[in-house]
Specification:
The complex is a heterodimer. Chain A is mostly beta strands. Chain A is built from no helices and 12 strands. Classes of the chains: A mainly beta, B mainly beta.
Chain lengths: ~110, ~120
Amino acid sequence: AQSVAQPEDQVNVAEGNPLTVKCTYSVSGNPYLFWYVQYPNRGLQFLLKYITGDNLVKGSYGFEAEFNKSQTSFHLKKPSALVSDSALYFCAVRDTGSNYQLIWGAGTKLIIKP
Amino acid sequence: GAVVSQHPSRVICKSGTSVKIECRSLDFQATTMFWYRQFPKQSLMLMATSNEGSKATYEQGVEKDKFLINHASLTLSTLTVTSAHPEDSSFYICSARDRDGGVNTGELFFGEGSRLTVL
């Protein structure tokens, strides 16, 4: 069965430090992977996606993610965290069925402390 | 980027009344829209898939008579919570896929969400 795991409920990082939000996946076939961010009481915003090509994907707001096929991971990273990065982050993988739905991770709350 | 507008952002209603939430794609056509429910500190729960011009496909455990979905045009889908009760209080989010772009990737564009409080 296809699934996405975000092993950390919450990640705390000091402002200016690098951050990593972890995501692992399980799919049959080639994965299409996504990261979305949700600010309080708001909808989700697309950050970046991996379809094919370079394993390092660059996205919005200075975020990037590295696709690692051997480890089935797609961790979200940023070299220098900002307080404004504090939000809820969701990893998702495309359903390999015909409806192209996304399968969602549970979400990781990222807290950046000044 | 593509914009999805969701309205109202907040609604408070009395138990037993019905509430309609609209989801519009503003600058693209969406043959498919998705409706999610999100409980506090939890991930998104897919409720149903709304296809323009046809009946919605509901996920297991979601009452279709309770949550009525209409997708009458390529830019509008509505979710009506009928005879709402306090346990229906939640954050409802819609998303849409651009008919002409991202179809094969699965990328979705989200509305801002609607917080429903049933008294």
